[in-house]
Amino acid sequence: MVERLRFYDNLLKEHFARYRQMAFVSGPRQVGKTTTCRSVATNYFNWDAPDDRRVILAGPDSLAHAIDLDVAHARQPVVVLDELHKYAKWKSFLKGFFDVYEKRLKIAVTGSSRLDVYRRGSDSLMGRYFLFRMHPWSVAEAVATSVPSKLGREPKAINDADWQALLRHGGFPEPFLTRDDRFTQRWRSRRADQLSKGDLREVTRIEELGTLEVLMELLAEHSSQQLIYNNYAKQLGVTSQTIKRWVNLLNRMHYGFSLLPWFKSITRALRKEPKWFLRDWSGIVDDGPRVETFVGCHLLKAVEGWTDLGLGEFELRYIRTALGREVDFLVIRDRKPWMLVEAKADETSLSPGLHEFQKILKTEYAFQVVLNLSYEPVDCFSYRTPVAVPARTFLSCQRRSENAVNPPV
Fold this sequence. Notes:
Layout: H1 7-18, E1 22-26, H2 33-40, E2 43-46, H3 50-57, H4 60-66, E3 78-82, H5 90-101, E4 106-111, E5 129-133, H6 139-143, H7 160-169, H8 173-178, H9 181-203, H10 206-220, E6 225-226, H11 229-236, H12 240-252, E7 256-259, E8 275-278, H13 287-308, E9 314-320, E10 326-333, E11 336-344, H14 352-361, E12 365-370, E13 387-390, H15 391-394
Parallel strand pairs: 1-4, 1-5, 2-3, 3-4, 11-12, 12-13
Antiparallel strand pairs: 6-8, 7-8, 9-10, 10-11
Helix pairs in contact: 1-2, 4-5, 9-10, 11-12
């Protein structure tokens, strides 16, 4: 596999150059968290390594001694603590370590769902860290890995090899960079096994595991569709509340993600049923769900990146009414509808929903993103009325503005 610089490599370097806070890097298994963090590290400790675990268990002073913090350094060392969330007292350990030694080093902490401290009551680490949610490769990251100092980046054509690799092999680093069909198939199966037989076994009862694995298979066949909990409950012989709990668990494990419907100001809009998407679009067979999942994963990466970089509070939703009128995606910016996105494989005739809901919600932008259109070097965000745009163009460009910083979509 050929190694390539990632956007997140530069993001961490810039973060440590500018800020004192720890960097918490979370994301799906095998998305590249450890590789990226080790690229900036001077010291690396993994909770799963017995010798490293003994150092951490001995307390903050033990870790400081292992890093040689009593020795003068020309540059502050960067210490990476991998899988630290498996330590039951990881928050109190970090608080004590950071409060004593923050002026002598930089700290990166990696992990998956259990690193997300926002999901739990009070946050004892408030003010001591910034969270960065890491995603697979995307179109914009394939064309540019720098962290821009201001907005205004023009769209840029992705080369055909990268484009085809994203569509065929997905954006997870190993299959994307290896680009071998047999490898991708084996990698996809191995990742599913690791999730079901490893991660899920740690957080759910063994007797539930077989039924939960069946739910994973069903969800994989229905990416981009609405989640009707009662239907899955009947199929699996459990309660709808159990299905809801399991879906939330799979979301926290980054197997997929759920989008809630937006209903404010929309007559007869759905209020409850979320849509569910796989994190890895490469295994989806049908064109429609595959295209919608591909675009949805890119948009999720964008809104989480914008939020993590402090550009505002962004959220991804969808629109559907009881009469069946819908738009695939709605980006919310600072609690207000901002951008509508409809995903299509080939269709360039504009979806009526774009016109209708832009008028109702007064969004700044409304795009029909078409996968199989050729790249056009055009600024999508110069259009304030609904417009069809090539996916290669839309997913590579940035919203233009003069007073904000924008990560890749």
